[in-house]
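Please decode residue identities from the backbone states below.
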């Protein structure tokens, strides 16, 4: 169980369908992949897809700051190793690059633990492999009014009971309201609609536009303001009827403490890149005690194990970004995803990716 090697790889793999987010230009899936190997030959894998660069910085953080802390340690002590990395990076860390680098290693460590035990993570964590409700995400604002609706209709035709569309950044308030209105008219009342702002409004804008969107019976309004505007979130949630969701840009449970305390944000969306499995399980526990649900941000292949083993799961988010990367992709069936029954997190990258798609700066 002792760690004998930690290896990193940087990849740039073309998207099968490049997303048109409207504020990021994404042509390739830029990945940092980390492998943790034990003396017995077990290899666990973790990865990051940080969207906006920084892969070489993250790789340097792993190799310079974190790898020396883990070499020779026992993979079964994952939570203790998290704390060791957390305390050792006190000066440089607490969020950002160090936590992302720690998260990749944490995912790989848990994967190695599961593979060594011959059990999937959901089973290791006393969960159940039940189908998990999943929404179709990727009705990007860059597709425009008609394109967002067409993408949503394709999701519905595939059996998804819910979709997520985007507002702000490219649109005026009147255009945003019209887009949501027309999406509701196109899909009818039986489909859940989530709306993502991607931190695109001020609190005053969110309240003004959000009041107009309340009539369209939305599942949630996501990230209406910047992640650190806790006062703004409190104001917005106190006024709107639509539930507010956030959390993808918060790092660890420490960053989410204001939401646990207020209880006003009913759905938290922690990102596995900003805490790894260890912290997401801690976040889920705090959220459960506060009466909040967990709908992890992206990475459904990995997050399925979390939702299958916590007391307060909500939705998984599916965009299909990574389906073409896996030896055995985890695909939705009638709007649900079932966690893999393979040991660890059960996801292996196609070997040819490492040969054919080196990282391009």
């Amino acid at each position: 169980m002792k760690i004998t090697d930690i290896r990193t790889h940087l990849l740039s793999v073309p998207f099968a369908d490049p997303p048109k987010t409207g504020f990021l230009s994404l042509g390739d899936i830029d990945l940092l992949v980390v492998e943790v190997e034990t003396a017995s030959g077990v290899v666990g894998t973790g990865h990051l897809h940080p969207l906006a660069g920084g892969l070489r910085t993250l790789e340097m953080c792993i190799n310079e700051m974190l790898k020396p802390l883990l070499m020779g340690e026992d993979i079964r002590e994952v939570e203790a190793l998290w704390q060791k990395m957390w305390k050792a990076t006190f000066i440089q860390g607490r969020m950002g690059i160090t936590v992302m680098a720690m998260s990749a290693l944490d995912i790989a460590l848990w994967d190695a633990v599961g593979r060594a035990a011959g059990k999937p993570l959901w089973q290791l964590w006393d969960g159940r492999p039940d189908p998990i409700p999943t929404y179709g995400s990727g009705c990007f604002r860059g597709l425009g009014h008609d394109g967002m609706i067409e993408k949503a209709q394709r999701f519905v035709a595939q059996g998804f009971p819910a979709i997520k569309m985007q507002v702000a950044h490219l649109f005026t308030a009147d255009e945003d309201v019209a887009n949501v209105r027309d999406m509701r008219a196109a899909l009818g009342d039986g489909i859940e609609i989530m709306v993502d702002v991607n931190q695109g409004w001020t609190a005053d804008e969110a309240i003004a536009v959000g009041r107009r969107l309340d009539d369209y019976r939305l599942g949630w309004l996501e990230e209406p303001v910047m992640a650190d505007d806790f006062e703004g979130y409190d104001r917005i949630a106190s006024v709107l009827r639509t539930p507010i969701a956030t959390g993808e840009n918060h790092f660890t449970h420490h960053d989410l403490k204001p939401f646990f305390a207020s209880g006003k944000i009913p759905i938290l969306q922690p990102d596995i890149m900003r805490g790894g499995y260890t912290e997401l399980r801690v976040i889920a526990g705090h959220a459960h005690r506060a009466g909040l649900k967990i709908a992890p941000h992206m990475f459904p292949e990995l997050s399925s194990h979390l939702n299958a083993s916590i007391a307060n799961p909500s939705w998984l988010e599916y965009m299909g970004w990574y389906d073409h990367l896996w030896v055995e992709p985890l695909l939705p069936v009638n709007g649900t995803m079932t966690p893999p029954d393979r040991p660890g997190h059960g996801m292996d990258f196609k070997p040819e990716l490492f040969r054919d798609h080196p990282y391009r700066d």
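Observation: The chain has a mean pLDDT of 97.
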